Amino acid sequence: MTKNLTITMTFLLCAATALAETGKQRGLWACKTQNNSNVFVSWRMRATDNPWRTTYKLYANDKLVKTLTDRTNTLLGYSTAKATFRLEVLDGEGNIIDTQEGVTCDGNLFHHIKLEYPGDYTMPDGTVVTYTPNDCSAYDMDGDGEQEIIMKWDPSNTTSICTPTGPQLIDCYKLDGTRLWRIDLGPNVIAGCRVTFLCYDFDGDGKGELITKTAQGTKDGAGELLSKGVAEGADHTKSSINASGVITSSGKEWVTCFDGVTGKELYTTDYWPLFSIRSNWADDGKTDGAAYGHRGNWFKGCVAFLDVDGKPTPCAVTVRGIYTYSYAAAYTWDGTQLSVLWKHTSDKKGQGIYAQGAHSLTVGDLDGDGFDEVMVGAAALDHDGTLLWRTGLGHGDATHLGDFDPDNEGMEVFMITEEASAAYDAALLDAKTGNVLFGITQTGGDTGRGLILDCDATHDGAEFIEMAETNLMTCKGEAIAPWKAGAITSASINYAIYWDGDLLREYHDRSHVDKWNSKNSTWDRTMTLYNFGYGANTINSTKYNCNLQCDLYGDWREEAVYWAKNGDDFYLTIFTTTTESAYKLPWLRDDHTYDLAIAWQNCGYNQPPHLGYSPVEYYKEIAKGEPSGIITIKNDNVKADAPARDLWGRNADGRKGLYIVGNKIILQ
Q1: For residue 196, which of 273, 301, 343, 432 is within the disulfide window of CB 3.0 to 4.6 Å?
Q2: Is the distance from CB of 536 to CB of 549 less than 8 angstroms?
Q3: Running DSSP on this structure, what letter comes out for residue 491?
Q4: Where are the beta strands (DSSP E) in 48-184?
């Protein structure tokens, strides 16, 4: 269980079998190990699997080679390198509840996806623009059970401020390298980190859709100019931006939903608010106008399960503005049209989310009511678009949401600050209330970077590092040891990754993985990814991001996706661990907080995905053994009439598994 629940009785085991799954839902994966001496095979545990009773049987060329109950990975002899693998998943009574077959061994611990280079682009002034692979997302867009990778091509003339760029292009690739579609956002959408694309199953049909900001000149995956909804009859020859990159009154700003299989336009509606909602977006002497549109052209987006007719429903949420004025809107897609669910305005200093924005959005069920809240940075919006809490700490570049302190009920938020007026350089907040659990006293400057991860087994909860503090710190704010030690001397402090097989997290930055050595108080290099294949190029300048970090396939460890170039050919390279693990956790995307983090990971300044629960605390409960009967729980965050949701936090309407209903937990 998670610390959010106080168990007073035991589980109710129903006779119903787990929901049958089809296709590639188990993520079965096989590849050779680094030294080519073994074959590593791994697969998914699902949240619907009984942690104590489920059995996994692995076959190679129809011969049973492993029967496992305590883990979801294994090392096999090199003789199986040419085998075809099949997985059977059995319940406690020995019934087969799921299978996956037809998987062969990949030749390396890295998997190349060859990309289709779009060609160079010539700007109106004659400047030639080239492209490189940039941010990615992952989702099962075609409904076959395997995630696709959705990637944007960034033009070479993107800048940190608002200037005209080459068109932003978005591709969708299957893991075998097949390109499903390419969307061209056109000349009137400013490319770069201002473009957020949201991939999710918004209408519940089992396939993904893509929702993003569009404009005149946008072409869908079929190469057609937008023509549905408000785009019907639009004049696509008009410009939406002037020579300075500022939105003009003659231009259109839209939101479009695209089909996940074909990339075709499904519906287009107006983006809210338009740039012209303010005559200027003044901030510290910077006045947005005809020659400067930086403040008003910060666009962010995320997926959140909001209240649509009483049911938690995935919606697209957009936020415009960061430093001062901030506006948010939620859109629903019902399979027919995009509709606005709510709008939020914060245009007064000291109120709402005004001046509290970070360069990304973070989403989760902060207050435990079965619906999601949107954390814009130092403030959070409730699921209905009203203010949940505001800290007044102002803008900061990085925020993290997860279960970081086992002594605090619910989740926590770790954030860094940029403004000298803030009380802290970094702070850990209670996610439900925004109350500061501890803070590092302000030193007077832009903290810049900060990261939280459970990396030290000698201290409970997660640890954090931040640029203004020399020490690795506990979740209580206590110093452990200097963090610039061993393999880490830089201060980019970007990502944390589940990689080596224990329940702790590793440090992931600049194309390498490092593990904290609590005995020696050093970071030890685990793997240097750019030494393999065609290399591993980072993105987003000084942020040194990977293109994507996600539990794409195999067991619960994460994959790291980087771009590479060999000759004239571009690739996405997926790196996976081949280290055995004696633990099993559900597929990370079966956790609601992590699932939504993959959807927003490409937003603004990329942040790593976090789980909404602690694997360490989860395993403490697993070790107690399987209970029986009925569990009642004491959890003030769960209302008696709250929608059903499972223990991993996913809004589980109608799905068999582990549910919270009122004040009871039911295992089906």
Answers
A1: 301
A2: no
A3: -
A4: 55-60, 63-68, 73-77, 84-90, 96-104, 110-114, 121-122, 128-129, 131-139, 148-155, 169-173, 179-184
Tokens of 347: 């245009």
What share of residues in the chain are helix, strand, coil (percent, to 5)?
5, 40, 55
Residues 123 and 290: their CA atoms lie apart, in Å, by 20
Tell me which DSSP letter residue 316 carries.
E
In contact, 269 and 230? CB cutoff 8 Å:
yes
Q: What stretch of H or E contains 616?
A: helix 615-622
C-beta of residue 322 within 8 angstroms of C-beta of residue 357: yes
Beta carbons of 321 and 298 less than 8 angstroms apart? yes
- 8 Å CB contact between 404 and 428: yes
And the tokens for 398?
Answer: 């990085």
Q: What percent of the chain has pLDDT over 90?
A: 81
Q: Quick one: tokens of 129? A: 């623009």
Q: In the chain, what's the furthest Cα-to-Cα distance?
A: 73
Q: Could you say which DSSP state residue 614 is in?
A: -
Beta-strand pair 179-184/197-200: unpaired
Rg (C-alpha) for the chain, rounded Å, is 24
Is the model's pLDDT at 626 over the cut of 70? yes
pLDDT of residue 629: 58
- What is the predicted pLDDT for the residue at 43? 98
Encoding tokens for residue 466?
Answer: 């931040």
Other Cβ atoms closer than 10 A to 125: 7
Phi, psi (deg, nearest 5) at residue 590: -75, -10
Q: So what's the pLDDT on residue 283?
A: 66
The yes-or-no verdict on residue 171 having pLDDT over 80 is yes
CA-closest candidate to residue 561, choices 149, 266, 234, 79: 149
Q: Is the dihedral of CA 553, 554, 560, 562 positive or negative?
A: negative
Instruction: List, in order, residues 6 or more apart from 507 with CB less than 8 Å away.
Output: 451, 453, 455, 488, 495, 496, 497, 513, 514, 515, 516, 523
Q: Residue 370: CA atoms inside 13 Å, Cβ hemisphere, count?
A: 23
Tokens of 104: 């062969």
Q: Which residue has the higher pLDDT, 304 or 248?
A: 304
For 440, residues 6+ apart whose C-beta sits below 8 A from its C-beta are 424, 425, 426, 427, 466, 468, 469, 473, 477
Closest CA to 651 of 564, 591, 609: 591
pTM: 0.93
Question: pLDDT tens, 227-246?
Answer: 999 999 999 999 888 888 88
> Residues 630, 10: contact at Cβ < 8 Å?
yes
Amino acid at position 347, single letter: D
Domains in the chain (CATH in brackets) are: 6-14+621-667 (no CATH), 29-110 (2.60.40.10), 129-271 (no CATH), 274-387 (no CATH)
Confidence at residue 23, expressed as pLDDT on a 0 to 100 scale: 67
Residue recorded with tokens 């109350």: 435
pLDDT at 645: 40
User: DSSP E strands: which ranges in 595-662?
Assistant: 631-634, 645-646, 658-661
- Spacing of C-alpha 551 from chain mean position: 10
From the list 220, 249, 254, the residue with the least C-alpha distance to 234 is 254
Q: Where are the alpha helices (DSSP H) in 477-614?
A: 592-600
Q: Which token pair is 269? A: 């509606």
Query: What's the angle, vertex CA 130, arms to CA 126 and CA 132, rounded to 5?
Result: 160
CA distances from 62 to 28, 136, 348, 474 (A): 15, 36, 67, 49
* pLDDT above 80 (res 634): no
State residue 214's pLDDT score: 98
DSSP state at residue 657: S
